[in-house]
Amino acid sequence: MKIKILSLFILLAVLFSACSLERKLAMNYLKKAHNKGGILIVPPYSIDFIVNKILPPDSTKANDTLNSILQQQSAVLNQVSDSVLMENYLNSLMLNLGKLGYTIYLPSELDSFKIAPKPAYIFRFAQIELSEEYFHYVFSDEIDGFTYEKAFDLNLIKLSSWYEFEARDTVWNKVFFSEQAIMDELSGELRTNYVDGKPALIFKIDSIKPLEIYRMAADIGKLYAAYLNNFLMNTYIEQNFPKGQNPAMKFHYDLDGKMIFPYINDGFQEISLPR
Question: Does domain 37-271 have CATH number 3.20.20?
């Protein structure tokens, strides 16, 4: 037993030693407080609303407009204001980047951004899509020896974002993608119907409301501020690592808990640019 405990301590010591330099560099980056650089945020020209639902053949007419078809297909998207959505998204993104120590600029402040101290970055919204589709869910359970199944088409809302990110004073640039979703909430309980002895599902569907979509946009703004900070922090770690060596892990900084911890596959998806 003592040998096993000793082996565990040795393993933990090796792991801690392996990531100690990465952690130290991450802490150095975070200690910059309110001097991490300036970011010019370039909002999108518009938001694309997409409804990926199939209508019965006789439900549309040849002279239907795009708006009338959207009205037929959509359960909630046609009630969403693109300006309110984007305001929640952008305000949350900028607020949290500011809390993380970055100076935020908008296109109206371009002259100030041009002379801002290094480092300086441009974060451009290339494309934003808000889509609505069905998520086919099959409820399955067993009661009193009976297997019960019922299919539901739940409403799924996805917010997909593409960004171009570049440094003002160097030639490198990146393209990022990320997507988040919310869905109708289904709650239910399987009971026995004592009239015929068969199982019956007592259920309730809480449908997505526009307010929840606006709240999702604000949550995404906060999340993507963390993603961007993580990217810059881990880039700093790579750039300051000993020559010929690569960091063993990447770190995530939790603004609310003021903690850093290792993460895997948590952040923007980087899209390779054509050469």
Answer: no
